[in-house]
Each structure stands twice: as structure tokens, then as C-alpha cells.
Specification:
Blueprint: E1 6-10, H1 15-27, E2 32-35, H2 43-46, E3 57-60, E4 63-66, H3 68-76, H4 92-107, H5 112-116, H6 129-138, H7 146-169, H8 188-201, H9 218-237, H10 253-261, H11 282-287, E5 294-299, E6 308-315, E7 319-325, E8 335-341, E9 345-349
Parallel strand pairs: 1-2, 4-8
Antiparallel strand pairs: 1-3, 3-4, 5-6, 5-9, 6-7, 7-8
Helix pairs in contact: 1-3, 1-8, 1-9, 4-8
């Protein structure tokens, strides 16, 4: 086991969750999971005082991490009793490429709302009015309706083709196995580059085969196949005699909350130490923020309605940490510390952020 237990809140079809699952598998990190509904509400997270509406959410001990970008960075820091070494780059150039790939697939032209328009419009989910309303809220008013998706499809295909072409003709052009080279296995750069392409390629009917296939992009599809084989091999290596991952068990929402609330903190911040809130940070200075202030934190691209309120514990250029109050049945509560990255997130003093 790692130093603190890991609990992973996700739903099985989430492409964002899949990239974290890949990382956990490739490094052999044990975890338990709490399965969530595809759409809001998610009372399991509300138990922890978390109104955030994006999935996945990762808890390490009593610290809860929002956004897969931050989650992967925190998992990369784990060392104790982890089966495999870190997956991140060990050179400045490699680290820069990882971050640029993260921006390309998360912030660039293949944004979630754009690539979602490539899903077959006749999928049963799109006939569920509650799901369509939920995703419109998630995407900031973009409705996943057949006519809307048909209009957006040509531009989305163009953007996706550009990403395929980029990898085919640059990073994979020399025949390498993995994005940063080498033959020992995929790294974090491969996860960052691959996850969105992998998701849409594996949705039947999403892409026209005449434009997206091994015949058109042989190097990209071969890379995907190698990656799938590496993940499958890593998972097989961790299986117990009953052919089930021995340390991966599904928890109910109440079980997960109780496990988190009874755990020690994964990260410590010295009580009363004002310097953990960086006074030189532009937002800290502009709002006059100090440790203990009530603040609201929310993402600025998708899921903006899921705002989390708590007391400020720490804040710097990379991360903001707030403390929330759990709301368990029977009045038995406690606190958790919620971490969010600064990139792509807004921090506002008070509880009525707009």
C-alpha cells in the first residue's frame, strides 16, 4: 500500500477517469473506487461538502484532488510501496513536452464540447432529456441535440484530423514506440497525448473509417495498440488468484466517505503558517486573501456550476487548497481538504461567487 489509501470517484465511461486508471495500472498503485452516476446529482461527493460536478475525483487519505491534471501530478509524487517507477519525464525538454501535450488535449482545439459532437447522434443517451439538460449545464449551455451535433461535426473532424496528423508526421514519424522515445513502456507523455484520441476512436460510429483508420494513420494506430497492450500487461501482473485486482474494491458512497474522514491527511500544512498562502500571488494580493478566509473555487471551462466553498488552507501559483465540512447522516461529520489546480480554476473570496 501507499502511505495513505486512495479512493477514486468515477463512472465507467468517463474518458477523463480512464487516463487516471491507466496511470494507476501502469504503476501498480492500489486503490478502491466509488462509482458515480453519469449525471448530477452526486450525493456521495456532497457528503464531503463538495459540490464540484466534474468526474473523476481522487482522494488520497483525507486530501481530495479535483481535475485529472492535478491528480496525475500528485500520483506521480508517490514512491512508497508502488510497484513501478514514475512515468514522468526526467529532462526539462520532456517535462515541457508533457505539459504542452496536456494543454493540446485539454485546452486546445479538441475541447470536450467539440469532440463530443462526434458521438453518434442516435445514441440512447441523447434521447434522455435529463441527461441532455445535465450536459448542457456542464458545457455552459451547449446542447447535445442531433441538429447541433451535425452542425458542429465538420469542424470537429477537421480539428481531430489535425491532431492525428501532428502525431503521425512529427513525434511518431521516426518509428519510435513511445512519445519520449525508449522501449521500456509508455510514460506520462503518452497518457497526455493519447487519452482523447483513444476515447473517440473506440466509440463505434463516431469517426468515418475512410478518414480515420490504421490505413490512414498507421503510426498513430500502432501506438494505440502498443499502449493498450502495455496497460493490459500491467493489469494482468497485479491480478490475484481469483483474477480480480486484489486491492481494487468498490465502495458505497457512505463507506468511501467514512474511509476518507477516518484517514490521516496526505499533505500537511503547518497550522498558523501564513506563508502557505503566497502573499505575492496576484489573486491573493488583489483579494487580500489569508489563511482561514472563506473562498469559493470552480473551473472556468466546463462544469462551472459546480462551485466548492471552504476555508482557505494554502494557495500558490500551482494549487489552491480549501477545507470543507462533511455532511454525514446522523450529524457525524469532519473535514476534508480539497485541492484544485490554479490553471483553469477561479478562486473568489466569499461564498456568493458569480
Amino acid at each position: 500500500m501507499v502511505g495513505a489509501e486512495i479512493i477514486f470517484y468515477h463512472y465507467t465511461r468517463s474518458p477523463y477517469a480512464r487516463r487516471v486508471e491507466w496511470y494507476l495500472a501502469l504503476r501498480g498503485i492500489p486503490y478502491r473506487e466509488c462509482l458515480q452516476p453519469l449525471a448530477m446529482p452526486r450525493p456521495d461527493l456532497a457528503r464531503l461538502g463538495i459540490a464540484y460536478r466534474r468526474i473523476p475525483v481522487l482522494a488520497i487519505g483525507r486530501d481530495v484532488y479535483l481535475d485529472t491534471r492535478l491528480q496525475l501530478r500528485k500520483l506521480e509524487e508517490l514512491e512508497d510501496n508502488v510497484a513501478a517507477p514514475k512515468l514522468g519525464a526526467d529532462t526539462p525538454e520532456g517535462l515541457a513536452l508533457e505539459r504542452l501535450l496536456e494543454l493540446l488535449t485539454t485546452d486546445g482545439g479538441t475541447t470536450f464540447s467539440g469532440i463530443t459532437s462526434l458521438l453518434p447522434a442516435d445514441m440512447p443517451l441523447f434521447k434522455d432529456e435529463a441527461f441532455v439538460r445535465d450536459r448542457a449545464d456542464f458545457l455552459g449551455g451547449v446542447e447535445l441535440k442531433p441538429e447541433t451535433m451535425r452542425r458542429a461535426r465538420p469542424d470537429a473532424l477537421r480539428e481531430l484530423a489535425g491532431v492525428f496528423q501532428l502525431f503521425e508526421t512529427t513525434l511518431l514519424a521516426d518509428g519510435r514506440d513511445w512519445i519520449l522515445g525508449g522501449t521500456t513502456g509508455p510514460g506520462l507523455a503518452d497518457i497526455e497525448a493519447l487519452w482523447r484520441l483513444h476515447w473517440i476512436v473506440n466509440v463505434p460510429g463516431a469517426l468515418p473509417e475512410t478518414h480515420f483508420s490504421p490505413a490512414v494513420y498507421p503510426k498513430v494506430y500502432a501506438w494505440m495498440a502498443r499502449f493498450d497492450a502495455a496497460v493490459a500487461a500491467a493489469r494482468a501482473a497485479r491480478l490475484g488468484d481469483d483474477q480480480q485486482p486484489p486491492s481494487r474494491r468498490v465502495l458505497s458512497g457512505e463507506e468511501a466517505a467514512r474511509a476518507i474522514l477516518s484517514s490521516p491527511l496526505h499533505e500537511e500544512y503547518e497550522e498558523g503558517l501564513a506563508s502557505v498562502v503566497d502573499a505575492g500571488d496576484h489573486v491573493v494580493a488583489a483579494q487580500g486573501l489569508a489563511r482561514g478566509d472563506v473562498v469559493t473555487v470552480w473551473p472556468t471551462d466546463t462544469g462551472v456550476s459546480g462551485k466548492v466553498c471552504g476555508r482557505l488552507v494554502a494557495m500558490n501559483g500551482d494549487e489552491v487548497v480549501i477545507e470543507t465540512e462533511a455532511d454525514m447522516e446522523g450529524g457525524r461529520g469532519g473535514t476534508v481538504r480539497v485541492h484544485a489546480p490554479r490553471h483553469g480554476f477561479k478562486v473568489q473570496k466569499g461564498t456568493s461567487a458569480q
